[in-house]
């Protein structure tokens, strides 16, 4: 995905919540209100476009907490630039405040 | 949290859904994809439990989240598709003769559906809804040099009624656009014996016969569709009052479904007014029932002799035409046969006179046996599509009876069919010339060769190749006397590697 790509509102919203600290699909769903059938394909697209990067949590850490390891997402530099442009385009994104405690376990 | 709790109940259902959705994901990515979704749903279930949302609502929520796996799976499936290969495959399929025939078949299907299952065509093929329909005919008057026919004047009809022996019964009709129950529609004024002459029956109510003064001046007869549309059925319409062209009528009868005369669009039938009955110069449509032993030709001669004997001034230079309704309605089949005949003549002439109808390769011996049947099937289907479209979508086409219901439609539908036939045939021949002489696929990979401005000492044109590697067609930019119009070059097996590699 090049720099001049125009993100859809959904993609921009997802980037915004990742930027705000939401790191995995369920967290993003919780904070955006988008259904899982939208969030995960959008994450794939964004990852394919180089705007987000995914990493698996270390097995050891997950095992210590007796839970399966999960996949985390974070913004890349291109993603940050694209988000900055998108925020100018979708002015309401700027005022989006995310209650990070909502998705936490 | 123990693992038994983790995979119990709703999570098992969630895992099952994810396992099903994973079938959509390419094998290489499947394991990782499943791991992510299973982990997410595990955490989701735990989140719901921590929130105290255990129970049916929580299960439903988890199921809803899990169902998103199908959308995600589809995304992976579509991503994995090789679009170029698919596009290429689609192009190859478009070139096949089966695709061509299917496409015309689809057009025919659209015509059938859009016309509500070919009502006009069915009326051409099915028996007419009249008693002994073979003896029902219409009479038209024309001049020797006048191609356009019109209804005869009422004065002549009266003469024929009293003197004719070849015609048993006469009835007159006129038609016009009017307001029927407040809505625009077609109304026909018919003489007293109109319905009895046709032997019409009813779906409900009773028709006037005209015998023994059995006519009801303020009665109207509705078509089945008009009654169904306005009153919900035939029986419900009987006895109801309706305004037709500003006059109030009582609905005396409803014609059966499928009954038609003149046009299927006529919604109401009312008796002729006294003014119409008494005007000797009024031109009306005339429908007759011929005597059992009378032929249309015999009737024409007799009717003409009657008017010449009694009204020589007016009858001078006139012709009287008696057209059996059934024959006239089915004349449309003749048009179709004529179209096919024309196509056959052109094809036979092309093959025998070596006119390059199918390109030079086709007239050589040994061309593919499928070329002929494919061309025939394609042409027949295309002409059939033109015919059906003309019949169904021209409001009152040439199959309507003498005079028609709309003077403009008969020539329009005839011209439409003629032009459409020529168009269909031209397209069919053009398409055939651009097909491989061996596998009948449409040629592709067009390449412009030569220099367009160097026609004197060089040649320029377009070359097309069969994607299966059977041959190559050269189409010159300008057909000149020294140049073969189109050249088909068969490619031998040594070329096959090139096409297999492709």
Question: What does this entry show, briefly?
Answer:
By secondary structure, chain A is mainly alpha-helical.
Rg on CA atoms of chain B, Å: 35 Å
- The Rg value of chain A, from CA coordinates, equals 14 Å
Counting helices, strands and paired strands, the structural category of chain A is mainly alpha
Please identify which CATH superfamily of chain A we are dealing with. Answer: Winged helix-like DNA-binding domain superfamily/Winged helix DNA-binding domain
Question: Strand sequence of the main sheet of chain A, in spatial order?
Answer: 1-2
- How confident is the prediction overall: mean pLDDT of chain A? 84
Strand-residue fraction of chain A?
5-15%
For the sheet with most strands of chain A, the description reads:
2 strands, antiparallel
The proportion of residues forming helix of chain B, as a percent range, comes to 40-55%
User: Helix fraction of chain A?
Assistant: 40-55%
Task: Give the overall form of chain A.
Answer: elongated
Q: Point out poorly predicted stretches of chain B.
A: 1-7, 361-366, 396-408
- Mean pLDDT across all amino acids of chain B: 82
The coarse silhouette of chain B is flat
- Assembly annotation: heterodimer
Could you give the distance between the termini of chain B? 58 Å
H/E series of chain A, N to C?
HHHEHEH
Report low-confidence residues of chain A grouped into runs of 5 or more. 101-105
- The name of the CATH architecture of chain A is Orthogonal Bundle
Question: Which SSEs are present, and which pair or pack?
Answer:
The complex is a heterodimer of chains A (105) and B (502).
Chain A: H1 9-19, H2 25-32, H3 36-48, E1 52-56, H4 59-64, E2 71-75, H5 77-89
Chain B: H1 3-6, H2 10-22, H3 27-50, H4 56-80, H5 83-94, H6 97-114, H7 119-125, E1 136-143, H8 154-163, E2 167-180, E3 183-190, H9 194-198, E4 204-205, E5 219-222, H10 224-231, H11 234-237, E6 241-244, E7 247-254, E8 266-271, H12 274-278, E9 285-290, H13 296-310, H14 312-315, E10 318-324, H15 325-329, H16 331-352, H17 360-363, H18 371-393, H19 409-433, E11 444-449, E12 461-465, E13 471-476, E14 487-490, H20 496-501
Parallel strand pairs in B: 3-8, 5-7
Antiparallel strand pairs in B: 1-9, 1-10, 2-3, 2-9, 4-7, 5-8, 6-7, 11-12, 12-13, 13-14
